[in-house]
Amino acid sequence: MTSVMLSWFGRFSTAALALASSFCIQPLRADDAISQLQYVSEDFPPYNFRDSSSPDGREIARGIFIDVLEALDKPLGLNFDPANVRFFPWARAYADALNGTRQVLFATARVPSREKRFKWAGPVMPIQIGLIARRDDATPVDPTSAIVGVIRNDIGEELALKSGFSRDHLYRQSNGNSLALMLAAGRIDLWAYNEAAALWYINRNDLNTARYGMVRELLKTQAYFAFSPDVPDHVVKAFQEGIDALKQTVEKNGRTRMENIIQRYYQ
């Protein structure tokens, strides 16, 4: 999986690498709108999630997008603290970002239905959505009979409907953990979701991940930071420049800094 992910980030020419090594993001003023951003997310591992495995049991925000924000913190003057990221079920997080002020929602699949609702910085990395099933389940992918689990208002729900499944055959939940257990118990036949995130939830429940996999791809797209419409354009531009710099800065191991951030979660 790592090699597939890293293949999306091409190598740069000698001139481009020279430019990347000298690239410097100019920090914005401390009182700028960038330091007033509010971060909202969901548990969507390995992209963003809450980890309670610390010795003291405290929940810590982790994931690829969290690490990207930490890498951008000083260059952009974000005043970012992972402890201040608000985690909600996707439907609530999405509504807050759409209707709130100075909101940053992540990780967000950039699709046409969302294009004009937000401002965008990225992409951070590719993302794939598909139908996840038990490998020993012979149930056909039949929109007229199969029961599909989806996260409420998630892109998986939208894609399942577009693929011909009726709302009557969708089992809507607010979190991936519930759907992982339902799939294992046979209460749903399919799960419209990101495969990496689905397998993370399956493993979290001490289930054998080898027994599950994607049986049909629904979408390949890119994951971005999505900004509420009121966020000033210059703030979004600063994020974009910062993300571009992470993709162009080559570290000692020969990979870009963005590649190394992603690699931490695909070993």
Q: Could you give the topology of this structure?
A:
Blueprint (H helix, E strand, L loop, with lengths): L1 H5 L7 H9 L15 E4 L7 E3 L8 E3 L1 H13 L9 E2 L2 H10 L3 E7 L9 E16 L13 E4 L3 H8 L7 E4 L2 H10 L4 E5 H10 L7 E16 L5 H16 L8 H7 L4
Parallel strand pairs: 1-4, 1-5, 7-8, 7-9
Antiparallel strand pairs: 2-3, 5-10, 6-9, 6-10
Helix pairs in contact: 3-8, 6-7
Characterization of the model:
The protein has helices spanning about 1-5, 15-20, 65-75, 90-100, 155-160, 175-185, 195-205, 235-250, 255-265; strands at about 40, 50, 60, 85, 105-110, 120-135, 150, 170-175, 190-195, 210-225. With about 270 residues, it is an alpha/beta fold. It has an eight-stranded mixed beta sheet, sandwiched between helices. Helix 3 (about 65-75) crosses helix 8 and helix 6 (about 175-185) packs across helix 7 (about 195-205). It is globular and about 55 Å long.
Write out key terms for the chains shown.
267 residues, alpha/beta, eight-stranded mixed β-sheet, two-stranded antiparallel ribbon, disordered N terminus
Low-confidence stretches: 1-23
Q: Roughly how many Å apart are the termini?
A: 9 Å
Nearest-integer average pLDDT: 89
With strands numbered from the N-terminus, the spatial order across the biggest sheet is 4-1-5-10-6-9-7-8
Which bin fits the share of residues in helices?
A: 25-40%
Condensed summary:
By secondary structure, the protein is an alpha/beta fold. Helix content is 33%, strand content 24%. The longest helix is centred in the C-terminal third of the chain and has 16 residues, at 233-248.
